[in-house]
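Page 37, continued from 36.
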């Protein structure tokens, strides 16, 4: 696991996640699963593959839309976190981006919990209708977020995720989702398979010149015309030895 400390939503964060599968889109690779509880193959795989390859060709993310409720979610997220910290008597800290050791798969958890390596927090401030879906999930009536949450636990090497959903004038929702190792093993194998195909396509595109590596930053070179204080001291001491100029 690699943890990158940056602010979510910034250009740095967008660059880190561009072109690789992330947990928020794992449901484009696998489905939550049926009665057997096993993940299945999503019909959106090829569409998502094309999206990620497009980001690599452009060398930038191509997502950027924020709905009204996403904007409000950002506004109320701190309130949701403060409520969780108060009710659970704990402190949390922001996380930028987390990847697997090879950097090929990632996720953006909302918070890690101070002094706790087993769990993490997802703070939501959604539209009223989506908030109700979290209430249903807390009651065991929804698997809508299973893939994302299991994916986050896999990438972040955690045992549980606490979800807090906050919506003004509606009941607060806090519930815990525990790690399902059997499900994660099968899900991870499918995501790895997808990631391997993505890397194969990327190598082929590089060979054809479709994907170009970012230009390396120029290495600063010494300016022969630049004189340091030490140069001046040496010069003055050599030229005027009787005037008390000391070498540095």
């Amino acid at each position: 696991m690699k943890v990158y400390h940056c602010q979510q939503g910034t250009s740095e964060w967008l660059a880190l996640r561009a072109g690789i599968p992330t947990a928020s889109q794992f449901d484009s690779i696998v489905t939550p699963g049926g009665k057997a509880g096993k993940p299945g193959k999503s019909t959106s795989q090829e569409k998502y593959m094309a999206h990620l390859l497009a980001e690599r060709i452009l060398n930038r993310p191509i997502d950027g839309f924020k709905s009204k409720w996403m904007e409000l979610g950002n506004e109320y997220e701190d309130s949701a976190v403060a409520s969780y910290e108060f009710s659970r008597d704990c402190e949390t800290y922001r996380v930028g981006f987390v990847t697997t050791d090879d950097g090929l798969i990632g996720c953006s958890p909302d918070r890690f919990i101070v002094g706790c390596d087993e769990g993490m927090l997802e703070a939501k401030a959604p539209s009223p209708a989506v908030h109700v879906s979290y209430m249903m999930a807390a009651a065991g009536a929804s698997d809508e977020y299973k893939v994302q949450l299991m994916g986050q636990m896999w990438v972040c090497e955690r045992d549980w995720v606490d979800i807090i959903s906050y919506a003004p004038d509606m009941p607060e929702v806090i519930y815990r989702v525990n790690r399902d190792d059997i499900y994660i093993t099968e899900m991870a194998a499918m995501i790895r398979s997808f990631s391997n195909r993505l890397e194969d396509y990327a190598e082929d595109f590089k060979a054809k010149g479709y994907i170009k590596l970012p230009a390396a930053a120029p290495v600063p070179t010494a300016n022969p015309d630049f004189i340091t204080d030490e140069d001046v001291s040496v010069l003055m001491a050599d030229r005027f030895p009787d005037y008390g100029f000391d070498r540095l």
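The first helix runs from residue 11 to 17. Flag for discussion at group meeting. The helical segments are 11-17, 45-58, 68-88, 128-138, 146-156, 181-207, 229-239.
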